[in-house]
Amino acid sequence: MAENNDVIAAIVGIEPGSELAAVVAGRADIMALTQQTHDAALMPAEPGGLSHAERAALACRIAKINDAKDFEEHFETLLDNSGASGDTARIADIWFDGGGDSRLKALIRHVDLVAHAPKDATRRDIELLREAGLADADLVRLSELVAFVSYQIRVAAGLRLMRGLA
User: Fold this and answer.
1) DSSP labels, 73-94
2) Which region holds residue 67: left if phi is over 0, alpha if psi is between -120 and 50, else beta?
3) Which of 11, 3, 31 lies closest to 23, judged by CA?
4) How far apart are CA 160 and CA 154, in angstroms?
5) Element (H, E) at 40
6) Helix or strand or coil: residue 59?
7) Contact 159, 12 (CB under 8 A)
8) Are 23 and 158 in contact (CB under 8 A)?
9) Which of 21, 81, 102, 156 is the 20 to 30 A CA-CA neighbour of 33?
């Protein structure tokens, strides 16, 4: 799935003029902010210590964990467009654990934990990221990415349910 000015609308398949389009139009401000957050979380002008490729691969991984095929395709496109290769591209593979790279291992472990069982995350999990070399700003960036992708998947699921009721 290619980049779109409204990723959720494209993924959900909101048809112009539909009842769902009218409902979404009533929340245009929220949808616009959601799209802005998508762009900021995945393709910020200054990515800091999390490259665009890593962000796309981690987002793809979260989509796979949530069995969100449409988002998986979207994030795979972002990953392909980032020019990722090697272990960075492999982050999206849910069977890849980071190999011999302690930083990637820590990133993947944390994302998997928070995507599967966020209530099980502890202070120690943040310490493990720091021990792997992540700066505090990158911890915030990673947390924002995981939270946003999870939110985005759930908003799309809710809109699909609404479409089914219309």
Assistant:
1) HHHHHHHHHHT--HHHHHTTST
2) left
3) 31
4) 10
5) helix 28-42
6) helix
7) yes
8) no
9) 81
2-163 under CATH 3.40.50.1580, yes or no: no
How many Cβ atoms are within 10 Å of 47's Cβ, its own excluded?
15
24 to 18, 81, 145: CA distances (angstroms) = 10, 29, 23
For 51-100, how does the pLDDT look when each residue is reduced to its tens digit (9 = 90+)?
999 999 999 999 999 999 999 999 999 999 999 889 999 999 999 999 99
Q: Which residue has the tokens 């219309």?
A: 166
Q: Is the CB of residue 45 less than 8 Å from the CB of residue 71?
A: no
Whether pTM > 0.85 for this model: the answer is yes
Instruction: Tell me the domain boundaries of the chain.
Output: 2-163
- Our CA dihedral for 155, 5, 164, 66, rounded to 10 degrees, sits at -40
The C-alpha atoms of residue 97 and residue 84 are separated, in whole angstroms, by 17
Other residues' Cβ atoms within 10 Å of the Cβ of residue 42: 25
47: helix, strand or coil: coil
3 state SS of 63: helix
